[in-house]
Amino acid sequence: MIGFGPSGVAGLTRRAALGIGATLGLTLLAPWSAQAAEPIKVGLVTALSGQSARAGEALTRGLTIAIDEINAKGGILGRQVELVRRDDEANPAKGVIAVRELVQREKVAVLFGGLDTPVALAIVPFTNGAKVPFIDPWAAGTNITHNGANPNYAFRVSAMDDSVDKAMVKYAMKTYGAKKPGLILVNNPWGESNEHGLRAALKEVGIEPAGVEKFEGNDVDVVPQLTRLKDAGADALLLVGNVGPSAQVVKSLDRMGWEPPIVSHWGPAGGRFTELAGPSAKKVIFVQTYSFFGKLSPVGERVMSALKAKYSDIKGPADITPAVGVANAYDAMHLAALAIQKAGSTKGEAIREALYQIDRYDGLIKTYEKPFSPESHDALGVDDYIWTRFEGDHIMPVVSN
User: Fold this and answer.
1) Are 268 and 286 in contact (CB under 8 A)?
2) Could you tell me how many helices (H) and strands (E) the chain has, helices first?
3) Contact present, 172 and 178 (Cβ < 8 Å)
4) DSSP reduced 3-state for 362
5) Cα–Cα distance between 200 and 40 in angstroms, integer?
6) Which one of 273, 360, 379, 387 has the fewest CB atoms closer than 10 angstroms to its CB?
7) What is the pLDDT of residues 42-55, one digit of tens each?
């Protein structure tokens, strides 16, 4: 039998106490350390397959380049940022399922997405209910951010239909002296949104449209509608339609031998517009939020270098397609990071309030001065767009006279 004297017992007691204290300290420290090491997750719900996959990849790349920059500087609140993506397949119902998973299972602090307006509109009620900031870097539907909710968790760093419509009217008047433009619009909810916006923009400047004509997404002949606009005295066309139908408008104009100025929403910018529309594709002037062609700002040079270094398929500006996806997502991520840092928290309510408190951010698209307020959840406005046209297969800025 081993005996212990008083000193031995005391020593054992002290050692045991120290051991228990150390174990307890490690037990208490372990969750704290794990929490400190946990990344801040941000989610992206977009089309990662199908016809819009290229745009979804552009959003991914813009977010990724911004996250790389943020993490290289120590992350946010001392934590690294991690991007978690889900494919919505351009389907509203699948978009909601994806968002639910990102919010409830992945616990994302901020959600990005909404490539398609119908998907974004389906997402908004859920994110408002879950109190998770939703920042849309693409879809232009006005009522994504103007959704009537209070509090409203939907924000946007992209074009907005009502704002684009004002810019289209302003450009047509200033550049072409348009006094009686004709509206030629795709017959779907996007066309309806822009009809409302264009009518309001024209009324604001005291102009009546020559007429409003609609075409279906699968139409191959738009000559009858265009003929009515021509006979009504249209001196310019304001076009809203995606790649295929917009190309049919251009081809129908060619068959008519009519060459009015064409000012378009950004529908023609993606896909195979030059192939489908033919040589006259270059006649369409359309809106964008950014271009990597021409002289770049210091931020633009930095992002261009980062894209070339990270993605082997990018050799120059022509390979960044669509550029607006990269640029919008890049700026949206940095604005979200500033808000989380200001909030000192990853709680949705705190981040939402902090978005209103951002004073200035020198971004890729522009320098943002108080980009968000309770009255405006859109960081880009009518004066923030650039005008472009196709030169070959490249989208090039239009040089102002």
Assistant:
1) yes
2) 12, 14
3) yes
4) strand
5) 42
6) 360
7) 999 999 988 678 88
